UniProtKB/TrEMBL annotation:
Coiled coil: none annotated. It comes from Vreelandella glaciei. This is Xanthine dehydrogenase molybdopterin binding subunit. NCBIfam families: xanthine_xdhB. It is an enzyme of class 1 (oxidoreductase). Its EC number is 1.17.1.4. Gene3D superfamilies: Aldehyde oxidase/xanthine dehydrogenase, a/b hammerhead, Aldehyde oxidase/xanthine dehydrogenase, molybdopterin binding domain. Keywords: 2Fe-2S, Iron, Iron-sulfur, Metal-binding, Molybdenum, Oxidoreductase. Its cofactor is FAD; [2Fe-2S] cluster; Mo-molybdopterin cytosine dinucleotide; Mo-molybdopterin. The lineage of its organism: Bacteria, Pseudomonadati, Pseudomonadota, Gammaproteobacteria, Oceanospirillales. One of its GO terms (molecular function) is iron ion binding. Residues 55-162 form the Aldehyde oxidase/xanthine dehydrogenase a/b hammerhead domain. Residues 34-43 have a biased composition (Polar residues).
Length: 807
């Protein structure tokens, strides 16, 4: 593992090291970036838009040039969390300077409910108000300033009612957005009744704002028929196409949705980018003008959902060595006012309530609580991180109860031979890899030597306490909704030999488009420069799944590979019969921009350009579509058993922290990460994903605190009151490496593994290390209660509480 260190005050050295880092050499290098040669799948390569990103050439929705008569939209939002709309008078709004149109629930020509899976999401309020920030009306004007001024002129009367903001109370009253689900394996009650010891606890896990750099935005053009073209920052173009068509009451084929790139998504643009496209489309059709709708940051944070906060509880039976025999876990997801994707999100929290550990005979219960807040939605990990938190809390608690190091307890409870089946009935393949990975990191990070150093330091330091923790990740890869595990691609080869690929995935900075281009280049034996990708469009690849669930490269890469391999085989068939010399069909291959047939003295090489041109002149199709559907996966909700995941990705991280136990202030001193991506598609991008995922996960658990007032109004609605981690929060020592030599055991894309979501949960080690530091106040006899985010205030209160408990 190589160390990524902070640049010091020597500016010349800093500039030199930064240059070396970009070039892939020097002390900051993590993986050499291939700047020459083929740069196909499996090699490190720059992001396909990297230069555009840093030079400002990359166009986002707000960069699009608009016609002179384009309209700009502002929204009228509910100031209360719960109530009944009794009056909405827009006469002054419509008379305001620059206003061209104003619409409410009653101006929607088609469907008024745009719930993505289940109903419950009205495009505008009719009467019932369900959260502060819910959309009441929209105003279109000749300038954004005019639209925003006009919004303030509306006359609004609301009969306000008390807001339900407590998901635990909602659960007790059985106020749910979807029914409770249960997964059971074995006789969990008997395991508790016959337990040598029982350990139990509860934990509040806070939500998280997506805080994408580019907010929700779209531009909609009316077409010459009844349709629209929608440019949107969006993870699910096909769903937006469907909803816009339904709202306008027109066929799906009349709506084209295009996404070139997003300035971040993280799940926040999977379902919750669609409402703004629907509103803009209605106005575009009514006025015949191009419409732009971009949410200001504060409005964005008020109107869109977050990561689900969870209230989790566990009660586990353990033996004398801390090995889990069985028990029960309950997770309560705070879903907000409507279902959105909460059914699947709470399901995934349940699937991951075991993380890397065998629960034995266990029951896992998942509740979907309804509250008067914005409907919470997808966020990197999709409920998995919230589910993992409760079992990681249990591991620390078990260790304190039996007087062992938490790492020892974790390793004893890992999935292993004889204990290889999850509580939902799936066998954990490559389970030994988890042991190998953790043991490797344990050794490479000098865990036990550092444990002694930390313990010795704490023994002589009454105020500053150090903490150390190593936590694993086992994350299931696939959409838990089976039908979403499919993808398509469209490939064109032009007569000059250049290649264009289009697929159903969307680019939000994660490097998906780069990997797809590398896949095509590898299949066709070309340099990456020969392959270009186009914007994701619903009129090129239809009926696509969202870019989510860490499946972007797995699904779309396989579809692109399918298209490229079919085209390659067609060219081989043509070449075998066309060229006069007669080529060996069986031994044909494409490499280094050549068709190669035969070996040794009989080898024949035909340049790619010549092959393509000749094929065209002989009327051979140079276009192909590809398709892929993930095999094997299934899940029966009626019994809570099945195989919802095609495979598991693993990882582990070690964090060392220093905590001022009087003030609660702390710093992360060092982090070591070893992560499993199978055979990496692009090590440079994958390491970046691991680093970014970890930092985002650390932010979720430490600094990113969502706050509502007692009326249900979000008060942490901007960067001044909501704190995401920054460059300055990087640990001074940050070692990141990919596990090598362990390809995916399943038939995935070149035996790679997904890398989008799994690294997020590596951040749990920081929270566990904070608990370790606090536990040292009692000589590790008591496990502290520490809800998340573990802000300095919470850490200080936890320190005070554990001191009192020790008296």
């Amino acid at each position: 593992m190589r160390t990524l260190t902070k640049l010091d005050g020597d500016s010349s050295r800093a500039r030199r090291e930064l240059h070396d880092h970009i070039q892939g050499s020097g002390p900051l290098a993590r993986h050499t970036v291939d700047s020459s040669g083929q740069r196909q799948a499996g090699s490190a390569s720059f992001h396909e838009s990297a230069e555009k990103h840093v030079t400002g050439k990359a166009a986002y929705i707000d960069d699009f040039l608009l016609p002179a008569d384009a309209l700009h939209v502002a929204l009228g939002l509910s100031p209360v969390a719960h109530g009944t709309l009794t009056q909405l008078d827009l006469r002054k709004v419509k008379e305001a300077p620059g206003v061209v149109d104003a619409i409410t629930f009653h101006e929607v020509p088609g469907h008024t409910d745009i719930g993505p899976v289940f109903p419950g999401d009205p495009i505008f309020v009719d009467q019932a108000i369900s959260y502060a920030g819910q959309c009441l009306f929209a105003v279109a004007a000749t300038s954004l300033q005019a639209a925003r001024r006009a919004v303030t002129l509306a006359t609004i009367s609301i009969n306000e009612q008390p807001a339900s903001l407590d998901p635990v109370g909602a659960t007790e009253r059985e106020e749910f957005v979807r029914p409770t689900h249960v997964q059971t394996r074995g006789d969990w009650q008997q395991a508790l009744d016959q337990a040598e010891q029982i350990v139990e606890g509860e934990l509040f896990v806070g939500g998280q704002e997506h805080f994408y750099l580019e907010g929700q935005a779209c531009v909609v053009h009316p077409t010459e028929d009844e349709g629209v073209i929608v440019h949107t920052s969006n993870q699910h173009p096909s769903e937006t196409q469907k909803l816009v068509a339904e709202v306008l009451d027109i066929p799906f084929h009349a709506v084209t949705v295009e996404v070139r790139r997003m300035g971040g998504g993280f799940g926040g643009k999977e379902t919750q980018a669609s409402p703004w496209a629907c509103i803009a489309a209605i106005i575009a059709r009514r006025t015949g003008k191009t419409v732009r709708l971009r949410l200001p940051r504060s409005d964005d944070m008020h109107v869109t959902g977050k990561r689900h906060p969870f209230h989790n509880r566990y009660r586990l039976a353990i033996d004398a060595e801390g090995v889990i025999q069985g028990g029960e876990i309950t997770v309560i997801g705070d879903c907000g006012y409507s279902p959105d994707l909460s059914d699947a999100i709470v399901d995934r929290a349940m699937f991951h309530a075991d993380n890397a550990y065998s629960l034995g005979d266990a029951q896992v219960v998942g509740h979907r609580a309804k509250t008067h807040t914005a409907s919470n939605t997808a966020f990197r990990g999709f409920g998995g991180p919230q589910g993992m938190m409760i079992i990681e809390a249990a591991m620390d608690d078990i260790a304190r109860q039996i007087g062992e190091d938490p790492l020892t307890v974790r390793k004893r409870n890992f999935y292993r031979d004889g204990r290889e089946v999850t509580h939902y009935g799936q066998q954990v393949d490559q389970r030994q890899l988890l042991h190998t990975l953790v043991e490797t990191l344990e050794s490479d990070s000098d865990y036990w030597a550092r444990r002694k150093t930390v313990s010795d330091f704490n023994a002589t330091s009454p105020v500053i306490k150090k903490g150390l923790a190593l936590t694993p990740v086992k994350f299931g890869i696939s959409f838990t909704a089976q039908h979403l595990n499919q993808a398509g691609a469209l490939l064109h080869v032009y007569t000059d030999g250049s290649v264009m690929i289009n697929h159903g995935g969307t680019e939000m900075g994660q490097g998906l488009h780069t990997k797809i281009c590398q896949v095509v280049a590898r299949e066709l034996g070309l340099d990456l420069e020969k392959v270009r990708i186009t914007a994701t469009r619903t009129d090129k690849v239809p009926n696509t799944s969202p870019t989510a669930a860490s499946s972007g490269a797995d699904l779309n890469g396989m579809a692109a590979r399918d298209a490229a391999s079919k085209l390659r085989e067609r060219l081989f068939d043509f070449a075998a019969v066309h060229f006069a010399e007669g080529l060996d069909r069986e031994g044909m291959r494409l490499e280094e921009g050549m068709l190669v047939a035969g070996i040794g003295e009989s080898e024949r090489r035909i340049p790619w350009g010549e092959l393509v041109q000749t094929a065209y002149l002989n009327r051979i199709s140079l276009s192909e579509k590809g398709f892929y559907a993930t095999p094997l996966i299934h899940y029966d909700r009626s019994v809570g058993q099945g195989r919802p995941f095609y495979y598991y990705a693993f990882g582990a991280a070690v964090a060392e922290v220093s905590v001022d136990t009087l003030s609660g202030e702390y710093q992360v001193d060092r982090v070591d990460i070893l992560h499993d991506v199978g055979d990496s598609l692009n090590p440079a991008i994958d390491i970046g994903q691991v680093e970014g995922g970890f930092i985002q996960g650390m932010g979720w658990l430490t600094s990113e605190e969502l706050k509502w007032n007692d009326k249900g109004v979000l008060v942490s609605d901007g960067p001044a009151t909501y704190k995401i981690p920054t460059f300055g929060d990087l640990p001074p020592i940050f070692n990141v490496a990919l596990l090598e030599g362990h390809p995916n055991s399943m038939a995935s894309l070149y035996r790679s593994k997904a890398v989008g979501e799994p690294p997020f949960m590596l951040g749990i080690c920081v929270w566990s290390a904070l608990r370790d530091a606090l536990s040292s106040l009692t000589d590790y006899a008591i496990s502290p209660h520490l809800d998340t985010p573990a802000t300095p205030e919470r850490v200080m209160l936890a320190a005070n509480a554990i001191r009192k408990k020790a008296l």
